[in-house]
Amino acid sequence: MIFLVDLTWMKKNAVQEEIKKLLERKSENFIDWEKNEYPLLKEDEILYREEEERKEIRGLSVDEKKEVSTFYNLLILGDNLATMRWLLEHFKEKITLIYIDPPFGTGTAFNLKIKIGEGKYSTDSKYWIREPAYKDSWLGGLDSYLEFMYPRLFLMKKLLASHGSMYVHLDWHVVHPIKLLLDEIFGKENFRNQIIWYYPAASAQTKKFFMRSHDVILFYSKSKNYIFNDDAQIYMEYSSRVKDNLKRDEKGVYYYRGGSHNGLKLKRKVYIDGKGIFPRDVWLDVPYVRANTLEYQGFSTQKPELLLKRIILASSNEKDLIADFFCGTGTCLAVAEKLGRRWIGCDISKHAVHISRKRILDIHEGRDLNNGKKKHAKKATPFKIMVQEDKIHDKSFLKSYLKPDQNHEEGLFQDFKEPEIELKILEKYNSCMKIELVNYSIPFEEKIKKSITNKINKWSDWIDFFAVDFNPSQGVFNTSWASYRTQKQREISLESCGWNHELKKIHSIQVKVIDILGNETIKTIKLNNIKI
Ligand SMILES: C[S@@+](CC[C@H](N)C(=O)[O-])C[C@H]1O[C@@H](n2cnc3c(N)ncnc32)[C@H](O)[C@@H]1O
Questions:
Q1: Exposure check for the chain: N or C terminus, fewer CB within 10 A?
Q2: Distance in angstroms (rounded) separating the CA atoms of residues 137 and 52
Q3: Is there a single domain that holds both residue 318 and residue 369?
Q4: Checking DSSP bridges between strand 108-115 and strand 128-136, what pairing results, if any?
C-alpha cells in the first residue's frame, strides 16, 4: 500500500485552477496570472548555421522527421513558465530527460564574477567585479516558493516523454515539501531515487550543529517503462578499502574476498572487472567546481559537469532531447552537447544566457568528460537563441550597475540611448572584406558605479563578445563569425575573419556587440553606401 500525504498551502487551489485554464488555452490566448499575458518567444540569433548538419535527421521516428530536420538546439532567454507553455505546442511528451537546479529557497542572492579586459588573475580584484546573478528570496515565504514551483513542475511532466525522467536538484531548505509535490505530480510509485551528492564544505561556519555538506537530487520517472542505462561510464570507483585488499589469482585477474553474512566473513572471491561498482545513491566522487578548472564560469551556484554526465548517460540515449529550465551557466546543456544529445535550455537572466552561449560556442575548448585536463576538442552543433518578447528591449538588468543615487524607477531605462559602435571595413584582397571594431561607448556611462568604471582602462575593456552576420536576414542574427572572452581566454579579436562579399552578392552586414554588463547592440551597414 502506498501512503500519500497531500501538501497544501494557501493558494494551492487557485494555482491548480490556473494550470487547468492554462492547459486548455491555445497559444494565441496565453494568460499569465501575474501579468495577464504571456510574452511570446522570438527567434533572435542562430549560431553557426550549417545546412549539412541541419539536414541530418537526428534519430527520431519517421513521423517526427519533418520537425526534427529543422530542429536546432535552443537557448531561451525568458521566464521558464512562459517558455514551457510555448514549448508544449511543439515538444509535448518529446523530452527524454529534464534536469533542473532551481533556486533552493535560501532567502539570499547569488553572485557572478564578471572579468574585465585581458587580466587573467582571479585573485587580483582590479580585473573583475562581483555582481548579483539572481535573487533567491521569497517575500511570501514557502507559500510563494511553492506557488512558483508547482505549475512549473506540472508543465515539465507534460513535456516529458512516457519513457522520460526528471531530476530535481535541491538541498535541505525545500527538498521535503518539493518531494511531496513531486509525489503528487508524478505519482509516488514513480519515485526512483533520492541522490545525495556529497561535497566537502568550504569552511566550518558553525559548531552548533553538524556541517551541511550535501545536496539532494530527486529522481522521478514518468512511467515504469523508463530509460536507465547500465553504462560503464556511470560506474563508481571501488572504495579504497576494496582497492587495498585486492589480490590477483593465478591468471593475474584482480579479486577481493567479498562481504559478510550473519557476522561471518564470506570467503567467496569477487572479481574486479575494471568498471568499478554500479552507482549507489550517495555520490562521493564528484568534486565541486573549482575556479582553476576548465569548466569554471564564475557563477557561485554552478554545478559540476561530472554530476550531469552520470545523470545524462544513465537516463538518456544519444540524440535524445534533454532540457534544463533553470540552466544558469549551461552545465547541463554543455554535457548534453558533449554526449551527443539534443538540448533545450532556458534562463531568465541575461548573464546566464550569455555565459551559456559562450560556453556552448567554445565547447571544443571545454573539458573532456573523461579527462578533466584534456579538451573536448569537438565543435558544437548549431543552436538558436530565442528571447521572450518583453526581454528584447528590457534594460532593467542594468539596475545593479548604476550608482546608488540614480533613480531606479522603471521607465528610466527606456531613455537610455543604445551604446555607440564604430566600425571600419577593411579590404584584404580583391573583394574579401573584414570588419574592424574601432570604438565602443556607452552614452549613460556616467550613471554607472565608479567601482566598475574605475576598472575600465580602455574602451575595449567593455567588450565581451563581437560577432558579424555577413548575410543578414530579417529579424534573426545569423552569426557568421564571432570572437569572445572566456574565463580562461581573455583576449578578444576586434577584427573579423575575411568574407567574399561580391561572390555572395551581399548588400548589407550586421554586427553584434555584447558588453560586460550584458548590453547587446546590433548595427546594420548597407554596403552600397560605403567605400571599402
Ligand atoms: C542554481 S542556478 C542554476 C545553476 C546551473 N545548474 C549551473 O550549473 O550553472 C538557478 C538559475 O535559475 C534561474 N531562474 C530563476 N528563476 C527563473 C525563471 N522563472 N525562469 C528561468 N530561469 C530562472 C536563475 O537566473 C539562475 O541562473
A1: N
A2: 46
A3: yes
A4: antiparallel
Q: What is the pLDDT of residue 507?
A: 78
Residues 72 and 188 in one domain: yes
Beta bridge partners of 277: 236
SS3 104: coil
User: Do 88 and 179 fall into the same domain?
Assistant: yes
**Residue whose C-alpha cell is 577593411:** 426
pLDDT of residue 33: 36
Q: 102 and 245 in one domain?
A: no
State the residue range of the domain holding 256: 240-271
Q: Which of 100, 293, 331, 348 gets mutated to test ligand 1 (max ligand atoms within 8 A of its CB)? A: 348
Show contacts of 234-240: CB within 8 Å, 24+ apart. 234/279, 234/309, 234/310, 234/313, 234/314, 235/275, 235/276, 235/277, 235/278, 235/279, 236/276, 236/277, 236/278, 236/279, 236/280, 236/283, 236/285, 237/276, 237/277, 237/285, 238/272, 238/276, 238/277
Please state, in angstroms and rounded to a whole number, the distance separating the CA atoms of residues 305 and 285. Answer: 12
425 plus 519 within the same structural domain: yes
Residue whose Cα lies nearest atom 18 of ligand 1: it is 79
Is the minimum distance from the CB of 167 to ligand 1 under 6 angstroms?
no
Q: Which residues of the chain have pLDDT under 70?
A: 1-3, 25-40, 48-70, 120-123, 202-204, 261, 406-414, 428-430, 501-506, 528-532
Residue type, 235: Y
Q: What is the CATH number of the domain that holds 448?
A: 2.60.40
Cα of 51 from ligand 1 centre, angstroms: 32
DSSP letters, 349-393, are -HHHHHHHHHHHHTGGGSB-SS-TTSB---PPPPEEEEEEGGGSS
In a domain, 128, yes or no: no
Q: Which residue shows C-alpha cell 578548472? A: 293
| Dihedrals phi, psi of 46, to nearest 5 degrees | -120, 130
**CA–CA gap between residue 204 and residue 366 (Å, rounded):** 32
Ligand 1 atom 12: residue of nearest CA: 326
Crossing angle of helices 331-338 and 350-361, in 10° steps, is 20
- Cα of 82 to ligand 1 centre, how many Å? 15
Q: Provide the number of structural domains found in the chain.
A: 3
pLDDT of res. 226: 98
Give the SS3 label for residue 418: coil
Residue 383 lies in a domain: yes
